[in-house]
Here is the input.
Amino acid sequence: MSQRHVLITGAGSGIGAGIARDLAANGEQITVTDLSREALDNTVTAIRKEGGEVEALPLDVASDESVNAALDALDRPVDVLVNNAGLQHVAALAEFPMDKWDQLIQIMLVGAARVTRAVLPGMQERDFGRIINIGSIHSLVASPYKSAYVAAKHGLLGLSKVVALETAKSDITINTICPTYVKTPLVEQQIEDQARSHGIPKSRVVDEIMLKPMPKGVFISFEELAGICRFLMGPAARNITGQTITVDGGWTVT
Here is the structure.
């Protein structure tokens, strides 16, 4: 295909914004969505300044009404969906507010299923679609104090496998990219939470908690994730579906 229409959730900042900027720079038509209109405006301004084509829509992935309204507002069908919306809360399960636990699951797992369900009929009608879930190293392993996040990210792998089977007769693929830590506002916010939960100074969190399990010992970049998205969107990946793309600097090698 030539120019594709890519819808990215949670694109007001962090990974979503980074992927949006990269794909726009490579000629794709981008629709960025987020709960925060102000954050979306920042992403749109950056993309347009770099010469990219982008539109923005407010979207709450935890709401059927919001998802339907956003899709109705689009001026062309979605060719590629990037399920990226997410948040974090760090606490022991005994101290984890259950409304917050439910919120994480609703946004990162149920929300991904909700938006995927909404775009699938159009993809099936046109016999083309690429769905990319942004998972995490925590789709594969666990860390203490992240029960809701780990549960949601593990669930994405199961969702991806089921949808891969249900769409196997069409030129539709769905895969989950699982990176270790990416230097985003979400990760920056975790440093203080991790320090408190582990009882160590903030200065030790990055080296002793975040990067210690990675033999390569470096943060993952937006460019790496966007490059994997471009590959999964392309013809060389048409038979890659239901797969877990692990970007972990060697974390899970042993």
Q: What stands out?
A: Residues 181 and 219 are 6 Å apart (CA to CA). The domain at 5-181+220-247 is CATH 3.40.50.720 (Rossmann fold). The helical segments are 14-25, 37-49, 64-73, 98-126, 147-166, 185-198, 205-210, 222-233. The chain has a mean pLDDT of 94.
